[in-house]
Amino acid sequence: MEHVRAAAKFAGIELSSSQIVTLGRYADWLRSEGQHAGGIGPEEADRVERRHLADSLLFAGYLPRSSEVWDLGTGIGLPGVPLAIALPDSRFVLVDRSRRRIDLLRRVIRILDLRNCQVVHGEIENLRGPIQTLVSRASLPPEKMIEVAQRLLNDRGRVIMAGSWTKRPEHPGWETIEIPGYVLDQPVWLLIMRRE
Hints:
Layout: H1 2-10, H2 17-36, H3 48-57, E1 68-72, H4 80-86, E2 91-96, H5 99-112, E3 117-121, E4 131-136, H6 142-152, E5 153-164, E6 175-179, H7 181-184, E7 188-194
Parallel strand pairs: 1-2, 1-4, 2-3, 4-5
Antiparallel strand pairs: 5-7, 6-7
Helix pairs in contact: 1-3, 2-4, 3-4
């Protein structure tokens, strides 16, 4: 859990021992039931902590505290579940269009006893705002997410998206944030769009 702790520290979060245990339980679930159900690929099992949990926690550094956050295209809970574990005073709405993934997500939320999560089965196009904060790892490309953000966000809302693990992304309308290499052993990038 070294990378998980480093990402949380970078994001300004001090994880309790019980939060570390819960993140470990989620990692175990991703490697077992989550992987067998196709939620992550077989090659991902060895890098769950670094590539999925720690990467998800990086979003927390740019989220308003004690807020409502919608995770669009969450799949089996990334980044929403790690964020919900790390930020118990915030409320998370996890949205995905796949019934199978939603069923898996509901199961893991019960297993982890996450009371600050709501799961929504549906298409992004059918969602209604206003919403304060959106997060997403890979549900839409940045140019499409801007259209969604304009429709859903409130006046001071923001979107935080996974940018890249390979090269610095640049997209009109987005701020590119570089996460230094010492956090995850290589630089990674997030994209942020604010309506403030």
